[in-house]
Amino acid sequence: MSYQREWEELSAIKGELAERDWFMGTSGNLAIKAGSAPGAFLVTASGKDKRKRTAEDFLLVDLDGNPLEETKLKPSAETLLHTHIFKRSQAVCSLHVHTVANNVVSELYGDQGQITFKNQELIKAFGKWGQDDELIIPIIPNYADIPTLASTFSHHVDEDAGAVLIRNHGITVWGRSGFEAKKLLEASEFLFQYQLSLLSLKSTVQLQS
Ligand SMILES: CSC[C@@H](O)[C@@H](O)C(=O)COP(=O)(O)O
Ligand SMILES: [Zn+2]
User: Which residues, if any, are the signal sequence (predicted)?
Assistant: First the structure.
């Protein structure tokens, strides 16, 4: 089975996210559908330093997350989340990263179960082009039991592109292409960093007045 093109695409995305330092402490995992095999996708191998580029970065798994080729590599511990995305939508790529900004936002808004962005240019990345459009990013608890986490996560996969925050853990985004998934990830991180800067400056101004 040939998946060289998808391997190179995911590898290039991985390299860009690594340049942003979004894989601290081996965190993060990435997946892309293997075009020639509709029931298969490439996923990052578990526990690797994703800043490094190696011949063992990804392995091919089926839609239940089982390896399709003989390998000593283990699929990402969070492969189940990617399987839900590919089973429930037409998404082609999903990306998961831990950043300080997405963790802090998930904790600040975790009790509300979501964060809403409005009057922000970058929500257009999610197709929100109207004057009063809102982008709602759900926030789910960080269940240690991965099947429970994945099942909770799956309830929010109702479109072919989207984003979900996992509280004090990270974000998972998915899209109809690698380009779209990366765009949503970058837009989300921009919005999180903006929100944190705004809250911090507001509290400084309040303290001074
Ligand atoms: C030490 S990073 C935390 C991991 O448990 C996990 O959240 C993660 O994102 C990476 O796990 P991985 O199994 O390498 O895909
Ligand atoms: Zn993670």
Answer: none
